[in-house]
Design goal:
It is a single chain. It is built from 22 helices and ten strands. A hairpin with a 2-residue loop joins strand 1 and strand 2. The protein has helices at 3-18, 44-47, 53-67, 74-84, 136-153, 159-168, 207-217, 224-231, 267-274, 284-292, 334-348, 352-362, 417-426, 433-440, 445-460, 463-473, 477-490, 500-510, 525-538, 543-568, 579-602, 606-635; strands spanning 110-117, 120-127, 179-185, 192-197, 239-247, 256-262, 304-310, 320-325, 374-382, 385-392. By secondary structure, it is of the alpha+beta class.
Length: 636
């Protein structure tokens, strides 16, 4: 049977399973005009007439529980839901609030999800505890109180949360949440509880370091390198650490989970990220992307998310990975979404009838009349079985209207080069987990020695040649003037004894007593790879990529020098032996200021700006990966 015949057969199966006509499962563009629906947009009288959030939640939760075979537990399920939502449950739907919950797409403080495998179904609820006057900090306090309630009434453990709570106590006013709770209901065992924390709750630039420190504190001391080098290999500007989750269970199977948001990721990039886990099956991610968002070459409209989990006994390699796709952002309406899920379930032997029953029970509108009921669909392998989870918006505040799908998603708004300079100043390389761990642990001279040996291999030995190449090719004299000044300073302003490379060699000689006993030439690989990456950027056919690299290197230089200067001062080293570092602590500040001047000089050249931004981005990634590899060498 060819592919077209196979699809036709599956569509007939869908039509039969949902008791709809074949016409209803045709692509949207082949339908007659969709009847206008008064529920599109916010209309509290039509959506949830005169209900509190608890009343609305209980009604929808009851419908879902019946649909997935948990009808015998409804009283217990709704009782738990009511007890966990007292902080906002009595509010009327539609009441204005200064706090817009990020739990669901329509800002409701709860969201449902169904986890479906061939042999079982689970029902979950995600909620956000809120303060009387909700904000980031009062919600955190409400979350702490909810933790205590759960600990008193259920068999849970808060021990792991208490080990890392100080890392997530919120101080960043721009963070979207501080703490969420999830409850999972099963057909054959008591409910379980999960906690979600925000790595951005204190300082977004430290999100990766917060995740790394959390893993180390919880005993997964070797987990970071695989996560950084595989799951987040595109660097912090593309692969962002979004959530940190704990199972609140008191057993060895309680998971620690890390979620990564992948900006503008292709299906191939997602496949590569998910390969970090032991349960990875090659091809799963690409196949799932094609099924849920057919024809989508990059997830630009809304980012896909990956999740990685560890249990006791895991360390370097996570047990499992999960792919979360924001499916409603890549479909015209919820009918199209349901059709895709039905096709995938039927072809893979997943319980399509349970899924259809749940959607029928939850839906109070025509599926064609809006898009957004499904916020995400996720795929995970569980003992080699596919397990798909559907994340369902409650749609109590709004229903998004159907959308027209563009063949090409619009590009994200781009920062100017000057804005990028400010961004890289704020999102400092000093917050890389390697440098953060160096600073928080007792001084380890051998690690500092190995770092500086790799810096010499990667940057110092070749830097004047790289910079001179750009100076010789750039055609803007204002830019050439600044770069020439920097090159002259690197060369000691004509004094051979003050050449920075020679001063650096004296620093290396001065810390020779710190040499790592187990050192081998292979341990210089991070520096050699860094050097190759920089050479490709500085010698790119467009010399303005090299200008962008020069801008970024001066910013990183200042951040690196100030960070390592603090470490050296914790030792008894004579400052005269590290003249290179103390001198750079001063001149790199001037060079970093010149980075902004260079960015402004480039503003009149669109092509030059584009190339410079590309050079800065590539250099940022090369620097980040260089430190990733050093982390593995020093701490694993």
């Amino acid at each position: 049977m060819d592919n077209a015949e196979n699809i036709s057969t599956v569509e007939k199966q869908i039509g039969s399973s949902k008791n709809i006509s074949n016409a209803e499962i045709l692509p949207l563009e082949k339908h007659h005009a969709i009847e206008k629906n008064g529920q599109i947009g916010f209309d509290v009288e039509r959506l949830v007439p005169n209900q509190t959030y608890i009343e609305c939640g209980v009604e929808k939760l009851t419908a879902l529980a019946n649909a997935v075979g948990l009808g015998g537990q409804i009283d217990r399920i709704t009782e738990i839901f009511q007890n966990l939502t007292t902080s906002w449950g009595d509010r009327r739907v539609g009441e204005t609030s200064t706090w817009k919950s990020d739990v669901s797409d329509d800002c409701a403080p709860f969201e449902f999800s169904l986890a479906l495998a061939p042999d079982r179904a689970e029902l979950r609820v995600l909620i956000e505890a809120q303060g009387t006057a909700p904000d980031l900090y009062t919600n955190w306090q409400a979350g702490l109180e909810l933790n205590q309630y759960i600990a008193q009434h259920f068999n849970v453990s808060l021990d792991r949360f208490e080990q890392i709570a100080d890392l997530y106590t919120p101080t960043n006013p721009e963070a979207k949440f501080s703490m969420w709770h999830a409850i999972c209901f099963y057909p054959d065992k008591p409910p379980s509880f999960k906690l979600y924390l925000n790595p951005h709750a204190q300082e977004s630039s430290r999100a990766a370091a917060i995740v790394e420190e959390s893993l180390v504190r919880l005993g997964f001391t070797h987990a970071w390198p695989t996560l950084a080098e595989t799951a987040a290999q595109r660097g912090p500007d593309k692969d962002e650490f979004a959530y940190f989750s704990l199972d609140l269970a008191a057993d060895t199977q309680a998971r620690v989970k890390v979620y990564i948001r992948h900006q503008d990721a292709t299906p191939a990039a997602l496949e590569s990220a998910l390969s970090a886990a032991r349960n990875y099956v090659p091809g799963d991610a690409i196949e799932f992307c094609q099924a849920m968002a057919p024809g989508q070459t990059s997830f630009t409209a809304k980012s896909a998310i990956s999740a990685f989990s560890w249990v006791v006994g895991d360390d370097a390699i996570p047990s499992s990975s999960t792919l979360h796709l924001p499916i409603s952002n890549y479909a015209t309406d919820d009918r199209a979404v349901c059709n895709r899920i039905d096709l995938y379930f039927i072809e893979r032997g997943l319980p399509v009838s349970i899924y259809n029953s749940a959607i029928d029970a939850l839906t109070k509108r025509k599926l064609e009349a809006g898009v957004g009921m499904h916020s995400y669909t996720s795929l995970r392998r569980d003992k080699q079985q596919r397990r798909v989870t559907l994340y369902l918006n409650p749609e109590v505040n709004a229903v998004r209207p159907p959308r027209k799908m563009n063949a090409v998603q619009p590009a994200r708004s781009s920062r100017s080069l000057a804005e990028m300079v400010h961004y890289y100043e704020e999102y400092t390389v000093a917050h890389h987990p390697f440098l953060q761990r160096l600073q928080r642990e007792a001084v380890n001279p051998a690690h500092i020695w190995l770092l500086f040996m790799n810096v010499r291999e990667g940057v110092v030995t070749h830097f004047t040649r790289l910079l001179a190449n750009v100076v010789g090719r750039v055609d803007d004299e204002k830019i050439r003037c600044i770069l020439t000044k920097q090159l002259n300073e690197e060369l000691g302003n004509g004094n051979i004894n003050a050449v920075h490379r020679k001063l650096f060699d004296r620093l290396i000689a001065g810390i020779d007593a710190w040499k790592m006993e187990s050192f081998t030439e292979e341990m210089l690989t991070p520096g050699r790879e860094y050097s190759q990456n920089l050479e490709a950027i500085y010698f790119d056919s467009n010399c303005y990529e090299g200008v962008g690299a020069a801008i970024l290197m001066e910013i990183h230089g200042k951040q690196f020098d100030l960070c390592l200067g603090q470490e050296f001062r914790k030792t008894n080293i004579e400052l005269s032996k590290i003249a290179w570092l103390t001198m750079h602590e001063e001149i790199e500040i001037d060079h970093a200021d010149e980075a902004l001047i260079l960015a402004r000089f480039l503003a009149d050249s669109e092509l030059g700006t584009i190339a410079a931004k590309q050079g800065a981005e590539k250099t940022r990634l090369a620097s980040w990966q260089f430190l990733d590899r050093l982390y593995r060498l020093c701490f694993c």
